[in-house]
Amino acid sequence: MLEEEVETKVVEIKEDLQKEIIGLFDQLDLAKSISSPTIVVATGPTETKKFYEEVWKPDTKYKFEHFIVERADSSTVNRLVEICQKDDVVGILGIGGGKIDAAKYAAHIVHKSFFDLPTNLSSDWLASPKSVVKDGAEFFSINTTPPKIVFKYKPILLRCPPRHIAALYGDLSDKPNACADWLLRVFMEYKTGEKLKDEVYFDEVASTICVNALKDVSNVVKKMQKIYDETQIIFSHAHTLWPEIIDVAFNSAVTVGKAMSSLTPYSSRPASGPAHLCAHALDAKAPRPLIHGEGVGVMSIFTYNLRKKYADDYLVEKPFGVGLEDIVLPLRYMRAPTDAKELGVDDITMIDSVVYAAELGEKRWFNTFSYLKEFHKPPLIIDRRFAKDELKEAGLI
To answer: What is the dihedral of CA 153, 159, 160, 162, to 10 degrees?
Structure first.
């Protein structure tokens, strides 16, 4: 097992990247007990591979086994497990983005420490206790041990493309919906007198953290919008506030992960709502890979629109004070996709994704789609006709 169960620690790298990371591996009991320890370093196949080769020098007592993650799927996890379970491997360092979920899951399986060095900020995965892994055509969100350490390395984060920050905002946009769905389940239990599936109950602290993470990023975006209104400098060139939004984006992504890790058992309940459900369905149906946060942002427009249209006693229109307009305007300012065409997805794929999301929802906790199908008056049939009409009304197709 890992040496102890601790809350994910954030460490900012101030000077020598490799030296400071090695110093933290040195503190692991397992590293102290092995004369020639190995660190498995997992990167993506392109930019993060290049970054690793630039900064990592083989001048320490550690051997480094570089593993390139082409995709976060079960085959990759199995190959990583074979490597990581070797006796001389003391831990795994993941450098990159979402693909590194495969390394986090492998570290969890072999009970070794996982250190996370993010190079972009496109989603809230940084300190998450979840790994999203693909098996065939299906995506699975799996409970894993959260990272022991998340490194904050500003030189690499400041190179984060504006598109990725916009994608993070899209990812965060679903947090109020997610928390409202959590409450919706509690309300439905009260209304029916029946205990619904899933043992994790609403946690106000975790929910507030997740919603505030969205609001923190939104507040900086509003400042950048003001600069735009006064100077016509677009989001990607608003340099004066770029360090601030990087800091806030990083902190928001980490705090959401910690909120999920604070629950027993670990749960994405306060962080993954109906727009995430639709985005995962979209990933399964789309012919090419999408940036997850961009899909969530577009589907947030759809799901907030559903709330606005069908809100009644239990399905609130503005969960936690956040409504449709609060989501759409920042997405547009950041030049994020706000419809299927901008996302690069055809209308049929969007329609099929909504229907599939409603089916996936039946395997999860009680959610917006379940409410509309079972308790809305009249109950709604979420089929292709419904999906087409609602997507068109939301301006997405």
So the answer is: 150
